[in-house]
Design brief:
Largest interface: A-B, 30 and 29 residues
CATH class of one domain in chain B: Alpha Beta
Number of strands of chain A: 18
CATH topology of one domain in chain A: Uridine Diphospho-n-acetylenolpyruvylglucosamine Reductase, domain 3
CATH class of one domain in chain A: Alpha Beta
Number of helices of chain B: 24
Structural class of chain B: alpha/beta
Radius of gyration of chain A: 23 Å
Number of strands of chain B: 9
Shape of chain A: globular
Radius of gyration of chain B: 21 Å
Helix content of chain B: 40-55%
Oligomer: heterodimer
CATH architecture of one domain in chain A: 2-Layer Sandwich
CATH topology of one domain in chain B: Rossmann fold
Strand order of the largest sheet of chain A: 15-12-14-13-17-18-16
Largest sheet of chain A: 7 strands, antiparallel
Strand content of chain A: 15-25%
Distance between the termini of chain A: 30 Å
Structural class of chain A: alpha+beta
CATH architecture of one domain in chain B: 3-Layer(aba) Sandwich
Helix content of chain A: 25-40%
Strand order of the largest sheet of chain B: 1-3-2-4-5
Distance between the termini of chain B: 60 Å
Chain lengths: 477, 430
């Protein structure tokens, strides 16, 4: 029965797309069964749309046959955002035509969703403009996926997050209409702000086919310094004092002692092994201003007990400092083949307390838990290195993750700063938003997507079973 | 219950966290535009095959066959996942299964790999035949009469791109020592390679001339043979090991300071002998010593130079990285530095010089149309530089770039050469 139904909609699908853009082979389907989290679900088919009319027809087909649709960009999601948890159709938007126009007069970038985030950086900077959001995956993430997850990277404190730069969208809604939200003006109060609703909606409210992004003038210079603190709390005090001295760094990255040791073991570069925290602080702006600010930052760090402060004098030294941060990934990977990257975020003042609790969680569950992240905006990245084949340890991992979420919310923070809720954090939604808060979001979802075809199985806690079949078996968790 | 693929490759494949940082570096992901043609996708499929969720031959073989093996993904991987190892292990397993059910053409390829490539004299015989065709007038006759058009498309392109072969006496002699000019600075042993020795021996001769000119004594050890890279890439690991052992033996005897080669792909294989023979207690330390001594010709020329350049005409040159020279041996600076030293020559970098040209060992023979898609795109980048000469450091790349030049109809204004050919030409040693 189910097979016959599939045959029918597959046949229709093949009339919408040319043959080479409908992938049904087992290898191709498996190649679209994962993202950068660790879930794995086999889609029934993968399509690669070339224009919005194809997407529109696809969505209408999905509504007619109640087939789930899973849009994805480069699938670098850490929360399971694009995973086809109920099988269905994966829509590979990374293969959508790439168009990127820089409007210099209005300081805008107009892009199709398949353009890579880093490409926007490059093209903007070529003409002296700047697109600040910079998730660490920007070299691979498509702007479409980036907007849908609303990930932003290290510059949130000074420059705000991705949603602050999206001022207009063209979207195909879950019922197949093409709508435009916002526009080309920075100011716009006409009607509800659907743009902001869509950014960060994790692919549950539509498929973006164009985005209008705001750009700003590019800062003239950058200055980087690194400071190592024997006590973690002191790094927190240093940050607070820097900010209260009217200095607003463009990035303030922190790494904990386990990161430091892992990096130093991986590639020795003289990081102090007895330090509990290393801060990397970057300022941008007018060269003379940041020169002055760097001097002040250095003094503050020393007064707060930093045993080592390095201010980069040259571009090479600057890269050297950032290298320690970049080496975290390969260094901690040696602690275990499965990496679970979280992004619980707390108000900045609670960072020392959060760190203390994370240390307790690490000990309580005997796990390789390391922490680094964007200290300026309270967005920490606790990473657990484990092996998903070890069922006993994975059970402890799940408990630890639950405790991390609870702690973050307790401290006035949030489940996710930039990775999204996706799959793993679904059960915790009510804890943060309350019953009515979640219910209000669900109402919005139902209004937009009455047949629940658009990325079903994400964000909301309860099981949504489409059609009369069982959900695809969730493997390897 | 663990199958052989699981034993060999699962651990390495499982180290991939699927972050996708490799996607922008992968030439086949760019040209084919789907995840099963990406490093991350291929690694995942190897894992799926190891877990027996997909079939080795029916599902895994094609995606892996379509990989160029350029290993650009390894240079950008934040976790240093060993893609090359995973690919080789999977191909070995596929070959193992395939032996029972060969596809058309497999037997011919295996016969060539087993019974021709390991024997320098057999390859030389083939090379001589090719030269006979070039010089006997037979080729001109075929071309003039239009009979050449009867060749299949790809054979015709290869025929047009094959460089002219000089007299056979130009070939270096095994067992010969070529003395340094002037004071001897260093003693090097030259790895001649199989195709290089049989067909492109002009390049080996130029290599020896340049080396002796900078004061290197050059030994050409007898008993050496093909490096085994082609075998390894086709999953014939046992054959590759045998070839490696023979080479190690041959080069141990001549006690040179360095083992020099002029083919990026071969050099990469030689440098990885330690890994190839890691499980063999007797051979492992010998392989490590061999690998440590292995250098690309450009590294030696830069270190022991300068070369005796002569003034020559103004010329624009662009450099195409050989993938295995760049991504495996990590040699990028030396060839460019040498080109920049030549009086009158200006090096203009093409966009994406670090991306594969689509040659991929014998990929262009096995997957002609996929290879040509990548090549034609590459040629657009080459043409933008306005170069008269495209330089690279591997026989496959040289031939491929010449095919690209022919296809672009640019053979009157552009040619593809090995780095040492250009250097020898500009030192009057050609």
């Amino acid at each position: 029965m189910e097979m016959e139904k599939r045959a029918v909609w597959l046949e229709e699908l093949k009339r919408i797309f040319p043959g080479e853009r409908v992938l049904t082979g087992l290898a191709d389907r498996h190649a679209y069964s994962f993202d950068a989290s660790f879930g794995e679900y086999l889609p029934e088919v993968v399509v690669q749309p070339h224009n919005k009319e194809q997407i529109q027809s696809l969505i209408r087909l999905a509504n007619r046959h109640r087939v789930p649709v899973y849009p994805r960009g480069s699938a670098s999601s850490l929360s399971g955002g694009p995973l086809p948890v109920y099988g269905g159709i994966v829509v590979d938007m990374s293969a959508y035509p790439k168009r990127l126009t820089i409007d210099r007069e209005n300081m805008l970038a107009i892009v199709t969703p398949s353009v890579l985030t880093a490409e926007i950086h490059r093209k903007a900077e070529e003409v002296g403009l700047f697109y600040p959001p910079d998730p660490s995956s920007s070299n691979v993430s498509t702007i479409g996926g980036n907007l849908m997850e609303n990930s932003s990277g290290p510059k949130g404190l000074k420059y705000g997050t991705t949603k602050d730069y999206v001022i207009g969208l063209e979207v195909i809604t879950p019922t197949g209409e093409i709508i435009r939200t916002g526009g080309k003006t920075v100011k716009n109060v006409t009607g509800y702000d659907l743009t902001r609703l869509l950014v960060g909606s994790e692919g549950t409210l539509g498929i973006v086919t164009e985005a209008i992004l705001r750009l700003i003038p590019k800062p003239k210079a950058r200055k980087t310094l690194m400071a190592a603190f024997p006590r973690f709390e002191d790094s927190g005090y240093a940050l607070t004092r820097i900010l209260s001295s009217q200095i607003l760094p463009s990035a303030m990255e922190v790494m904990d002692q386990y990161c430091i040791r892992a990096v130093e073991a991986y590639e020795p570069s003289g990081l102090p092994l007895d330090a509990e925290a290393i801060l990397i602080i970057e300022m941008d702006g007018h060269p003379q201003a940041i020169e002055d600010e760097a001097v002040q930052c250095e003094a503050i760090c020393r007064e707060q007990g930093a045993t080592l402060v390095k201010v980069a004098a040259t571009r090479e030294e600057q890269e050297q400092i950032w290298k320690a941060r970049k080496l975290i990934s390969p260094a901690i990977a040696r602690l275990g083949p499965t990496k679970i990257s979280e992004d619980a975020t707390v108000p900045r003042s609670q960072i020392p307390e959060m760190m203390k609790r994370l240390r307790q969680i690490r000990e309580k569950y005997r796990l390789n838990l390391v922490v680094f992240g964007h200290a300026g905006d309270g967005n920490l990245h606790p990473n657990i290195l484990t092996d998903r084949r070890n069922a006993e340890e994975m059970a402890r991992v799940e408990l630890a993750i639950a405790e991390i979420f609870t702690t973050a919310v307790e401290l006035g923070g949030t489940l996710s700063g930039e990775h999204g809720i996706g799959l793993l954090k679904k059960p915790f939604m009510e804890m943060e938003l309350g019953e009515h808060g979640v219910a209000m979001m669900k109402k919005i979802k139902q209004a937009w997507d009455p047949n629940n075809i658009m990325n079903p199985g994400k964000i909301f806690p309860e099981k949504v079973v489409l059609r009369d079949e069982k959900p695809a078996v969730r493997e390897s968790v | 219950m663990k199958n052989r693929l699981y034993e060999k490759a699962y651990e390495a494949a499982n180290a991939c966290v699927q972050c996708g940082y490799c996607l922008p570096a992968c030439p086949t992901y760019a040209s084919m535009g789907k995840e099963s043609a990406s490093p991350r996708g291929r690694i995942h499929l190897v894992k799926m095959a190891a877990e027996e969720k997909i079939d080795l031959l029916r599902d895994l073989k094609m995606p892996l066959d379509l990989c160029l093996g350029c290993r650009a993904c390894e240079t950008v991987c934040p976790l240093n996942v060993k893609y090359g190892e995973i690919l080789e292990a999977a191909r070995e397993e596929i070959h193992h299964r395939q032996t029972a059910h060969p596809a058309p053409g497999d037997r011919f390829m295996w016969t060539m790999l087993r019974h021709v490539f390991p024997y320098p004299e057999r390859l030389r015989w083939l090379g001589n035949l090719a030269r006979f065709l070039q010089w006997s007038g037979l080729r001109r006759m075929l071309r003039a009469s239009g009979l050449i058009r009867l060749l299949p498309e790809k054979a015709a392109w290869f025929e047009r791109a094959l460089p002219d072969m000089p007299p056979l006496r130009e070939r270096l002699r095994f067992g010969q020592v070529y003395p340094a000019k002037g004071k001897r600075k260093v003693r090097v042993a030259l790895f001649t390679g199989c195709v290089m020795d049989a067909v492109m021996y002009k390049i080996n001769r130029a290599t020896a001339n340049l080396l002796t000119a900078i004061g290197a004594e050059v030994v050409v050890p007898s008993g050496q043979n093909c490096c085994g890279a082609l075998h390894l890439h086709q999953g014939l690991a046992e054959e590759a090991k045998k070839l490696a052992q023979k080479n190690i033996e041959a080069f141990e005897q001549c006690e040179a300071d360095w083992i020099v080669n002029n083919a990026g792909g071969c050099g990469a294989a030689l440098k990885e002998y330690d890994r190839l023979l890691a499980d063999d207690p007797e051979w492992s330390p010998r392989a490590r010593r061999f690998a440590e001594k292995t250098k690309d010709i450009s590294e030696i020329l830069l270190e022991y130079g300068p070369l005796p350049y002569e003034n020559g005409p103004e010329m624009i040159v662009t450099y195409q990285d050989s993938c295995h020279l760049r991504n495996v041996q990590r040699v990028t600076r030396a060839p460019r530095a040498l080109i920049e030293q030549i009086p009158g020559v200006r090096l203009v970098e093409m966009e994406g010089a670090d991306r594969c040209c689509g040659s991929g060992g014998i990929y262009n023979l096995l997957h002609f149309s996929e290879s040509m898609t990548i090549l034609d795109e590459k040629m657009e980048r080459v043409q933008e530089t306005g170069a008269q000469v495209v330089v690279s450091g591997n026989p496959g790349c040289i031939l491929q770039m010449q095919i690209g030049i022919e296809r672009a109809g640019a053979s009157r204004r552009m040619r593809s050469v090995h780095l040492v050919e250009l250097l020898a030409e500009r030192c009057g040693l050609g």
